[in-house]
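Fold it.
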Amino acid sequence: MTGSGSFKKIIAVAVALAIAATVPLSSSAEISDELFIIACDLDGDGLVTSADARIDLRYAAGLDEFLHPTEAAIDAGIVCFGDLDGSLDHTANDARILLRLSAKLEDKSAVTVILNDPARTDSTAPSTTKAPPPTAAPITTAPTTAETTTAPVAPPETQEPADLPLNKLLTPYQDHGLGACEEIVVTADHAETLPPGKENDISDPSCVPYVKGTVAQVTGLEYFDGTPFYELDSGVKLSSEYVSHLTAGYRMPANSVRLAASEVTDSRTRFWFETDWIVPVNVKLGAQKYYSGYADRTYNVSSFTADSITFTFCSTAKGEGSYDCGKDVLIKSFEWSSSSGRTELKIGLRNAGGYYGSEITVTEKGYMCLSLRHKSPGVAGKTVTLDPGHGGNDGGGGSAGVYEAPINLNVCLKAAETLRSMGANVVLTRTVASQNPSLRERADMARAADSDIFISVHCDVSESTSAHGFCPYYFYPYSFPLVSALRTEMVRAWQRVYDPGSPNYAGIDRTPRGYGFFVARVEFCPSTLIELGFLSNDIERAALQSQTTQTKLAQGIVNAVAEYFGQAMG
């Protein structure tokens, strides 16, 4: 919890009685005891245990947010949420106090309860969620191995129109009169989904991330490399890293979805949907052809041919709202249909292959915002994220004492300079050799910048010293046009490096490959991972170390970006 807001007073609860390992919630308790429970019972099960301390520590570390403050706290306008030392900031010290309380090493005098103005509306007081009563089964939180991010993940443009009222969302922590079931709540900003039943962690482009707050019913459990994956009624599975697991959450009612607002800008079409709760949304491209290719992956493409995109709102009985497509350069049709407890929104495209990625977020007022990208001509004004692979203590692939990290960085720095001179906004995931952001941080930097394209730059190695040439990888079919431009221009760049009589002149083009590299699985814009060349090849390793070659490869990236956006280069 941050220290913002108008606090009316601080009441120190100084009760000398040592507490037991568990403290039952009682409606007839004195006010000091009641406030104590509100401050300390973070999982809403009516008990104060080490589980609450674990939740508190994860919250302080930024790994989780509180999804279920007690109903009493909401009604009273109290937003303690585990700030037990009264510092008006949330730190690991609060978790330490709570752990000592649950272990009977501390008494209530260690706790400071903060009363807050009931009119408070900032994000530290999520008013749309409530805890189950004390009789509900305990809620199991996600493991502590979840990846963290350092960059914001929702660009400010996703804010809903100011005239939309608050949409108070239902949660599985409220009793809807439908009984209980096993459920998950997504706690990550964007939780990657995978096909169920394969007992691995390999995704495919038929799966898209679920947004934070998504609720789904658990239908099965499988493990991979010791990590539990929950199979969901929406037809996908999720790693336990990304969710809170409710062994007996309240069953959610059938959802409805209504188009509440829309807008079209030069770069985006946005829809704001009013829903009863945050349901899973699946995405499917219409009329897209695939073939089995590299690594026996089924989802290779020879071109991007989709003429529509269908968004399936799971657990949803109906969809409402019309959209005037006449003003939209991307969309030619907007149609709802409902069947078997699911509602589909099919968006027809004016031009086949004219889809460049989309993203779903949840706004502060509780609306699901769907943002679809447009592609306009020219590099100027576009946001390009360049990701120099590896860095810091991770040199990446290498051979004969030469590693890829500095080469990746040099090429990206050179390309960034030229793209900026052309009017592009360039985001570099690292700018110095000592930096090494996590894969998730790299993707989140692109997301935070609302990037138009994402290119991760690497070098390759092989057991074969003869292997050489350029290779681009993609995941989603709509990344293929970007990959095709890179293929053309990077092959030309290498042809400017090698003499036609060189043994490496032939075979430069290793053709695009569909594969699930993490940084190629960015869903909100076209993205790719490219392998510049092979450090394990003596000739190519020497070339890759050359500043002259690095400049030519950087120019190849620039030319490919220009080609993708329809801008001719001199």
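The chain is about 20% helix and 25% strand.
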